[in-house]
Amino acid sequence: MTKSFNCGEPVGRRAILKAGIGLGIQLSLGQESPGQEEGASQRPKEGDLLVRVGDSTVTPLTPADIPVRGKQTMAWPMDPTDKTVRNGSRLNRVLLLRLDPEKLSPETKSRAADGVVAYTAICTHTGCEVTEWVADEQLLVCPCHESRFEPKDAARVVDGPAPRMLPALPLKLTNGTLVVAKPFTGPVAFEVQ
Ligand code: FES
Predict the structure, then answer these.
(1) Domains, the chain, ranges and CATH?
(2) Binding pocket residue ranges, ligand 1, CB within 6 Å
(3) Residue 117, burial from CB neighbour count under 10 angstroms (0-12, 13-18, 19+)
(4) Tell me: the pLDDT tens digits for 122-144?
């Protein structure tokens, strides 16, 4: 059941989404603390590197580390100066895919590096992680309520209850390494139920 943030008054989808965005900001602020911990909760910035979730060696990822047309690789951004992995907020978790550059929409191609695209791993519906991959159709799937996203075209919603596309994290290559080119294309947020 969807929670209302409006003292019993009906709350529309837009308002709920706004509340979700608010919650996202609250989550982020709530986890910040001085020094490295603060950096760990900050959203990815231009120049950040990407490291695989669970990689204790924090080795920056390259396109060769991402399987071609394979299942998504989960990653965290990392500050290149002090190697702070930005894992202090789950809203920073991103998914990486390596796709055929010729199959990408112009918008998505402009954000890709050697065919590698990055999106938030947090579903815009109610915030589950988008962990499933349909290889035949090359679609991302959220396991919670089966929303499907088209990663070759800005991760637009092609099926399911998700209200909007997954925000993208534009990438570039620097000396063969994947680097964040720009912040997320939109707020990482979800509806609260
Ligand atoms: S949380 Fe992803 S489809 Fe519901």
Answers:
(1) 44-180 (2.102.10.10)
(2) 123, 125-126, 128, 142, 144-145, 147, 160-162
(3) buried
(4) 999 999 999 999 999 999 999 99
